[in-house]
Amino acid sequence: MEGDLRQRFNPEGSVLRQHQLRMLELLKVIDCICKKHDIPYWLSSGTLIGAARHKGFIPWDDDLDIEMMREDYLRLIKILPEELPDNLALQTHETDPNYIFIFGKLRDTDSFLAETNDYDRNFTYQGIYIDIFPMEYIPYRLAWIAGHMQGQIYKQLNRKSLNETTIQRNINRIYRFNTRIGFPVLRFFSKMFPVKTIRHSFGTAYFSPRFAEDLFPLNRIEFEGELFPAPHDTHAYLTKIYGDYMKLPDLDKISPHYKEIRFTK
Fold first, then answer.
1. How far apart are CA 197 and CA 199, in angstroms?
2. What DSSP string runs through 2-56?
3. Which of 177, 202, 174, 198 has its CA nearest to residue 188?
4. Is CATH 3.30.460 the right assignment for the domain spanning 2-137+199-263?
């Protein structure tokens, strides 16, 4: 079964398999830097499902996700620019003013990737990437409010009546308000209440909770022939988010996240 899936979706030498192996190289760089500086992180989302179900990438998966607590994330994004090789770049709003997301990406600059949603059309860095998500203790209601605030950015991106300069100016205005005023206020209020759920940081707009007892202390899991950090109880972690994560989806409804990909080196 596993061999059939790989033959159908990502046989050796295929564009998708090359894409996955390039993401794996990015993960190895992150792993090395995090080990060097004692920064804990873990595989997450579809990447973790792939590790648990396939011992590597889900055969059709075209992204890679890791998570870490927000204080560790803030340390990492300060360290990365000094540690990265020349062909990699950290992408945040600070390193790319046109970048719209709250979380960071590690980009491979020896490639080009255009996503189907076209949100990346004005980004400075557009290569293959992995997502780096900051996590913190947040109640659902405040996370929802922050997600709605960040959603105003996506509305701007879909305004066909405006030119790109005006759209980007509006986006930057919303981003500055959210990150300098809106999210800090929500974070202040969230600390006033006892919260047991760990969620993506304010504005990421993903709301599924994680639980400390499932996460810590971190474990390790096999992924593409190597061991990487994973939640303490991967089964509990994934089940609470996805239900029966071992069940395959409808294979005929799978579609890629990107519309174009090129390898320049």
1. 6
2. HHHHHHHH--TTSHHHHHHHHHHHHHHHHHHHHHHTT---EE-HHHHHHHHHHSS
3. 202
4. yes
Give the CA distances from residue 219 to residues 51, 84, 142, 228, 248, in Å, rounded to whole numbers and listed in that order. 13, 26, 30, 8, 25
Of the candidates 30, 47, 26, 36, which has an alpha carbon nearest to the alpha carbon of residue 223?
47
Cα 124 to chain centroid distance, Å, stands at 18
| Contact in structure between 197 and 210 (CB atoms under 8 Å) | yes
Q: Can you give the residue ranges of every domain in the chain? A: 2-137+199-263
**DSSP 8-class letter at 252:** G
Strands, E, within the chain: which ranges? Answer: 42-43, 65-69, 88-91, 104-108, 111-115, 129-137, 197-200, 210-211, 219-223, 226-230, 258-263
SS3 89: strand
Helix or strand or coil: residue 175?
A: helix
pLDDT at 214: 97
Burial class, 114, CB count within 10 angstroms (exposed 0-12 / middle 13-18 / buried 19+) = middle
What integer pLDDT is reported at residue 154 of this predicted model?
Answer: 84
CB atoms within 10 A of CB 110: 15
pLDDT < 70 stretches in the chain: none
Q: pTM score, two decimals? A: 0.93
What is the Cα–Cα distance from 129 to 248, expressed in whole angstroms? Answer: 25
Reduced to 3 states (helix: H, G, I; strand: E, B; else coil), residue 254 is coil
